[in-house]
Design goal:
Length: about 210
């Protein structure tokens, strides 16, 4: 049982973080979560941490010792990923807005994010390819949501940098500049200057960069 302390602007008396941000305004910079949304997210946490699952009969059970199920085969992994996708689809159909992400997939599978990446590197072949395809599919979904204005650009960019290996780059085009020693010297410039005659008005003389070899 959590002890009671002093409530603050950002935490309640039990020390739990409130969904408030001092520098941002609710309803303008962010939206407050609803009770159904938090119930769904808490359910996902329990599934991932304690290995809870719902049977075909609708009964919630835990794996022995609270341990999540093991994924020894590709088929088991694919089944877990498919359940995660179906879970998100069902919750969104019920009005709870959930977005697939790498951390959410790992939590749903009952493993850590680092373990997911370790499996991708240490278990080559179909097992690794399945994880890569899942992560790529997650990126594709989030990209479509961002392009349709469903995810703030800065959130999308940060997420793609952290979870999908993308890097924002600024490309600067620099025109070629001739080296100093390649430029014509004074004697060469003077040789190329047109000869002025008495009948030539001074302002009629035009010297182009091409004539100077520049």
């Amino acid at each position: 049982m959590a002890g009671k302390g002093k409530e603050t602007a950002t935490r309640d008396a039990a020390g739990v973080r409130k969904n408030v941000y001092r520098r941002f305004q609710e309803g303008q910079d962010y939206e407050k979560q609803t009770a159904p949304e938090m119930a769904t997210l808490c359910d996902m946490m329990k599934r991932g941490i304690f290995g809870e699952e719902e049977t075909a009969e609708g009964v919630r059970v835990r794996h022995p010792g609270g341990r999540p199920r093991k994924y020894e085969t590709v088929e088991q992994l694919q089944e877990g990923i498919e359940k995660y996708i179906d879970y998100i689809a069902v919750q969104n159909a019920a009005g709870v807005s959930l977005i697939p992400d790498v951390e959410g997939l790992a939590l749903f599978l009952g493993i850590s994010r680092s373990t997911l990446y370790e499996w991708q590197n240490a278990r080559p072949g179909e097992f690794s390819d399945t994880i890569k395809r899942a992560i790529n599919a997650i990126a594709a979904v989030k990209k479509q949501l961002a392009l349709n204005g469903k995810i703030p650009p800065i959130v999308f960019a940060t997420d793609f940098n952290n979870n999908h290996g993308y890097v924002q780059q600024s490309k600067i085009e620099v025109s070629a500049v001739r080296k100093l020693e390649e430029l014509p010297q004074k004697a060469e410039i003077m040789r190329r200057l047109p000869t002025k005659t008495a009948s030539d008005p001074a302002d009629d003389i035009e010297i182009t960069a091409e004539e100077l070899g520049l």
